Amino acid sequence: MSDAEPFLVWQCRTCGYIYEEARGDPMEGLASGTRWRDVPDTWICPSCGTAKAEFDMVEI
Amino acid sequence: MIPQDIADAIVDPKAYADQARIDDAFAWIREHAPLEQAQPQGFDPFWVVSKHADILEVEKQNDLFHNGDRPTTLMPIEMEKKVRATMGGSPHLVRALVQMDNPDHMNYRRLTQGWFLPQNLRSREPRIREIAKSFVDKMAACGERCDFARDISFLYPLHVIMEVMGVPESDEPRMLKLTQELFGSADPDLNRNARAVTDLDEGLKAIQEVVGDFVAYFNAVTEDRRASPRDDLASVIANGKINGAPLGFFEAMSYYIIAATAGHDTTSNTTAGGMWALAENPDQFAKLKADPSLIPGFLEESIRWVTPVKHFMRSATADAEVRGQKIAKGDWLMLSYPSGNRDADVFDRPFDFEITRSPNKHVAFGYGAHVCLGQHLGRLEMRALWEELLPRLQAVELDGEPRLMQSNFVCGPKSVPIRYKMH
């Protein structure tokens, strides 16, 4: 994948928390630009604890 | 076992109207008995989950710690017996999302979840902002004094959620009264009988009457929306299907009731508490005035500060261990959100109101599958109000003693008299 690949947005199915690849989540140790595929599989939703696998890609 | 006086305090509605008393009780528990059993007079014993980390631990294990098997909120033994006797063995007077476990919980939650997602609320923001602006205008029209709780914060989120639900504005006073009679059932200023509750039967009867009034109202709404669906939440509930069949009557009525009560009262409490905190902390008000980009942080701190939902109960479906304590199958647990939100292991100077607090991972909305469905709407409402109000609010101070509602479940300030300057 090239750097020109557009940034995507993922959303927690339980609480609606939004992870934007462009912004990342620095409070969670995820720098801006961190791709979803690079977020560890053990990562959980910071808002409700839902597993990474329970997120959906969404268009905002 | 937690000492008797402290155990009695944490179930006493009056203690929650006395901030120092309830803070002291939970501070003692966090320090000396962070996960211990309590047996207040008249109650079955239960574990008090007082630490932030333990609340998360319990809340994320929804199959191990159920909501619906035992009362979901604190209930004395005798009252539970009476409720079970009148509800066909169930310990609940209503069966909304908070009383459900999977698979029902997931199925019922999905019914309205989409409505409350940020991307779907975005289209409602202009209207919510318009409503917010009208309340800011109302505050300006009050002159230089108002009771911010009664005149503004009780009414604004009420108007928003009732519009979302499709309840006409003329019925809003009735909805507010019923909400306050339900959540304020222990408060003589707010409950149906307008006096202190000393008799269990009388107290329970009053709550059942309130639920009955809600059911009568929303039963008519259901019939109307089935005949003529509209673009409102009531139509979603009225015409919703679970596994291909319409919602059960009891579940549908409960769905309306939770939306029509928790859907505004929690936001009202937080908004009133936020204003109270600003009036008491002029340095924080000045900081916010100087930099409105701090509004989101101010909102999160207001939510942590007020924590309008004081507890939910869980029960263990199997033997478990939390913080080294052996919790037996069937044991009852109290998740104390205000305690978790004053936990010094997580929050630096937890008793200070600090709008730049970061991180601020409070547990006021809960955690896990039952995390608050309406959290994004609540945040949007508060952001709209403060973005409209702050530029016009030049100064604010308390104009008397604020008062808190007497309740051990959902509560906050019932009166916040303020003096202010606006333009």
CATH class category name of chain B: Mainly Alpha
Q: Can you list the strand order of the major beta sheet of chain A?
A: 2-1-3
Specify Rg of chain B, calculated over alpha carbons. Answer: 21 Å
CATH superfamily of chain B: Cytochrome P450
In CATH's first tier, which class of chain A applies?
Mainly Beta
Structural class of chain A: mainly beta
What does this structure look like?
- The complex is a heterodimer of chains A (60) and B (423).
- Chain A has strands at 9-12, 18-20, 55-58.
- Chain A is mainly β.
- Chain A has one domain (9-58): Rubrerythrin, domain 2 (Single Sheet), CATH 2.20.28.10.
- Chain A is globular, with a radius of gyration of 11 Å.
- The mean pLDDT of chain A is 91.
- Chain B is an alpha+beta fold.
- Chain B has one domain (4-422): Cytochrome P450 (Cytochrome p450, Orthogonal Bundle), CATH 1.10.630.10.
- In chain B, 50% of the residues lie in helices and 12% in strands.
- Chain B has helices at residues 4-11, 13-16, 19-32, 52-59, 77-86, 104-113, 118-121, 125-141, 148-153, 156-165, 172-183, 200-227, 233-239, 249-280, 282-290, 295-306, 337-340, 375-389, and strands at residues 35-38, 46-49, 65-66, 145-147, 241-242, 245-246, 311-316, 320-322, 325-327, 332-336, 393-398, 403-404, 413-415, 417-422.
- Chain B has a five-stranded mixed sheet.
- Chain B starts with a helix and ends with a strand.
- The model of chain B has no long low-confidence stretch (mean pLDDT 96).
- Chains A and B meet through loops of A and loops of B.
Features:
heterodimer; A: about 60 residues; mainly beta; Rubrerythrin, domain 2; 3-stranded antiparallel sheet; 3 strands; globular; B: about 425 residues; alpha+beta; Cytochrome p450; 5-stranded mixed sheet; 18 helices; about 50% helix; about 10% strand
Would you kindly provide a brief summary of this structure?
The complex is a heterodimer of chains A (60) and B (423). By secondary structure, chain A is mainly beta.
